[in-house]
Amino acid sequence: MTSQKNHTGGCQCGAVRFRVTTDLGSASICHCRMCQKAFGGFFGPLVSVKDGGIEWTRGEPDHFASSNFVRRGFCKNCGTPLTFEHGADGVEIAIGAFDQPDTIIPTSQLAHDAAVPYFDELHQLRQRDISDGAANKGSGEKLVSYQHPDYDTQNWPPSPSKEKP
């Protein structure tokens, strides 16, 4: 895991963007049922950020109190999970919401006893890459993504000639 400052990220539609202005803390994946439902997946991948270390650079997340101890931030437009906020203990950010999630490596698993029974065998599944047509399911049509790119933009959605990587 990297701890360098100034990681950026945001939601899928680009309505909410953030910058982390402090070092990142520990990263983990949580298998509890609340994280499974909140992320719509087998686990919730999160990294801790020191209090006050998040700057919302476009929009702000909406929130849902998933328990009496935790509220979860998400984009109200596209539903992207963004934060796991647990009071005085601080805030954690969804690793997949970062522009470079591959630089944040989880070092622990939480609530592994609640993991789906086949979790530890998932690496054995047959694999298909996007280049194999996995994204368009063989329809013959080219995939056109409306997802915000993995970098900050001045405006979103962009006008056709203004935004370039």
Write the layout of secondary structure elements.
Blueprint: E1 7-10, E2 17-20, E3 24-30, H1 33-39, E4 44-49, E5 54-58, E6 62-65, E7 71-74, E8 81-85, E9 91-94, E10 108-110
Parallel strand pairs: 3-10
Antiparallel strand pairs: 1-2, 2-5, 3-4, 4-9, 6-7, 7-8, 8-9
Strand count, sense and barrel status of the largest sheet are: 7 strands, mixed
Give the helix level as a range of percent. Answer: under 10%
Instruction: Find the count of extended strands (DSSP E, 2+ residues).
Output: 10
CATH architecture: Beta Complex
Number of domains: 1
Shape: globular
Which strand order spans the largest sheet, edge to edge or round the barrel?
Answer: 6-7-8-9-4-3-10
Instruction: Give the ordered list of helices and strands.
Output: EEEHEEEEEEE
> How much of the sequence is in beta strands?
25-35%
Identify low-pLDDT runs.
Answer: 161-165
Which structural category fits the helices and strands?
mainly beta
CATH topology (level 3) name? Metal Binding Protein, Guanine Nucleotide Exchange Factor, Chain A
Mean pLDDT: 86
The helix tally amounts to 1
Rg calculated over all Cα atoms? 17 Å
Q: What is the end-to-end distance?
A: 26 Å
CATH domain class name: Mainly Beta
